[in-house]
Amino acid sequence: MTYDDFMNQPKRRDKAATRAALLDAARLRFARQGFDGTGVRDIAADVGVDPALVFRYFGSKDQLHEEAVRKEIPTGLTDDPTRPLTHITDTLLHDVVFADWEQFDGEHPLLVMLRSAGRPAIRDQLRTQICEGYLPDFAQRMGGENPALRAELVGALLLGMGVMRSLLDSPALRDASFEETRTLVARLVATLTS
């Protein structure tokens, strides 16, 4: 084989690296523009590949979105059934409201999903992650009267704070420290759990 033949051979692509790059590009696009504002061609262009690779690796834009914004409950967060709910909400307050999720343009994946919650499939995915992921564990820790309702109120508090701070850029919550906010949230959660 000559040097020219070697140089003209099709370049091999690292499938895992390309797939990971597509997920990274999709996360940023979905965070900034939502589902409807993001095109498969744009994601592919960000990575420098043919849009057909998006469909080869993910099947559809819907499946790409689902995989790109999936965020499971942090490992071990609810493993210990005796762990107080205030400790769990501290972690979620930090992760959902205060953490800088660089790969999602600074926002938690649940907030990224909210940008596209008008789409039934995304709304169902969001409901599944929250209502079947976090909230049943909250309710089990509460016991007493109406534990499911009180658990949903805690979930609404955390998600609403994320919306206020990240999506709406509300000044008081934006400027508040994690510690200051954590103290107030702990009081609210204590009221709901008693």
From TrEMBL:
Positions of the HTH tetR-type domain: 16-76
Regions recorded as binding DNA: 39-58
Keywords: DNA-binding
Cross-referenced InterPro entries: Homeodomain-like_sf, HTH-type_TetR-like_transc_reg, HTH_TetR, Tet_transcr_reg_TetR-rel_C_sf, TetR_C_16
Signal peptide: none
Entry-linked Pfam families: TetR_C_16, TetR_N
Taxonomic superkingdom: Bacteria
UniProt cross-references to PROSITE patterns, sorted A to Z: HTH_TETR_2 (PS50977)
Family matches, as SUPFAM superfamilies: Homeodomain-like, Tetracyclin repressor-like, C-terminal domain
UniProt KW DNA-binding keyword: yes
PANTHER family, A to Z: HTH-TYPE TRANSCRIPTIONAL REGULATOR RUTR, TRANSCRIPTIONAL REGULATORY PROTEIN
Name of the featured protein: TetR/AcrR family transcriptional regulator
Species assigned in the record: Nonomuraea mangrovi
